[in-house]
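name: query_chain
kind: protein
chains: 1
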Amino acid sequence: MTADIHIREACRDDVAALAAMFAQDSLGGHGDTADAADLHLYLAAFDRISASPNDRLFVAMIDDEVVGTFQTTLITSLTGRGATNLTVEAVHTRHDRRGMGIGAAMVRHAIEQGRANGVRLVQLMSNAARQDAHRFYERLGFRHSHYGFKMKMP
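structure:
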């Protein structure tokens, strides 16, 4: 089932809905919350993302309702003769709206943003426990090519 999905850049008014969506994700382990007392933390992060020339935060909308989100970051390095890559982060569809084509629409939008910026590749990471997400990304043309490592800071 594909709904009428509109993707746009996020605005500050979307932040509470995004925090609530992340708070419903028990598998991610990010410790997100919909508690209004912590909204200022999400707003501060939103302001940092908005101020960055290389970062963009998007929302997927159906009928004026936030149903998904993702963030993109352009990264230029000396490898690949100074190539620029696009990293897609925090792809998330609201739990009650999954299976409607929202995730695919968001990822395709990110890929098009990369194409418009002349990137060499589009990359993303996915939690190792998210096997359904891995199959989803592979269906969209991504290939498992690297191991990722993380270090949580105290």
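note: The first strand starts at residue 6 and ends at 9.
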